[in-house]
Amino acid sequence: MAYRQLFLVSCLLAVVLLSTENRQKLQADELRREYHEEQRNEFENFVEEQTDEQEERSREAIEQWRQWHYDGLYPSYLYNRHQI
């Protein structure tokens, strides 16, 4: 009878240890997931800022080109080019 009780107690202890280990693994997985999600969000924000800056520089360059080449007529120069 004592062996049976000892066996049951050891089985119960093993189950408790396994559940504790599983909880630790789940917690580590959750922390890892949160870390990678944060890194991905930071990278996406960085890429979005870079894209916005590039679009702004491009828009400014186009606007400068248009102002430099504007022929003073309306509508703009593209429609008022005279063919020789």
Give the structure's gist in a few sentences.
This is Unique cartilage matrix-associated protein. The chain is mainly alpha-helical and about 80 residues long.
Can you tag this structure with a few keywords?
single chain; about 80 residues
Explain what you see:
By secondary structure, this protein is mostly helical. It has one domain. 81% of the residues lie in helices and 0% in strands. The longest helix is centred in the middle third of the chain and has 68 residues, at 2-69. The protein is rod-shaped. It starts with a helix and ends in a 15-residue tail after the last helix. Residues 1-28 form the signal peptide. Its main location: secreted.
> How would a textbook summarize the main sheet?
none
Count of extended strands: 0
- Average pLDDT figure: 83
Strand pairing plus helix content: what structural class? Answer: mainly alpha
Low-confidence stretches: none
The count of domains is: 1
Instruction: Give the proportion of residues in helices.
Output: over 70%
| SSE succession | H
* Tally of helical segments: 1
Radius of gyration, taken over Cα atoms and rounded to an integer in Å: 34 Å
Judging from the principal axes of the Cα atoms, what is the shape?
A: rod-shaped
Percent of residues in beta strands? under 5%
C-alpha termini separation: 114 Å
